[in-house]
Specification:
Blueprint lengths: L31 H31 L1
């Protein structure tokens, strides 16, 4: 009886499709304002919410 050969270690990227992913710096120049606007649309309310959370947590724990 012979033992089957042990499988070779597989590369993690082996099973992923070979589709090139564009880098952020390669985005079309016309879309950059849209991307910045989208980040601000989400980021500003998020930052304000975190600020309010910290402020109210201080009040809760310090009296």
């Amino acid at each position: 009886m012979t033992t089957p050969p042990s499988p070779q270690p597989r590369d993690r990227a082996e099973g992923t499709p070979a589709v090139p992913v564009p880098a952020a710096s390669q985005s079309p120049p016309g879309r950059r304002p849209l991307i910045v606007g989208a980040w601000l649309w989400v980021g500003l309310p998020l930052a304000y919410g975190v600020y309010e959370l910290v402020h109210k947590a201080k009040q809760l724990f310090t009296g």
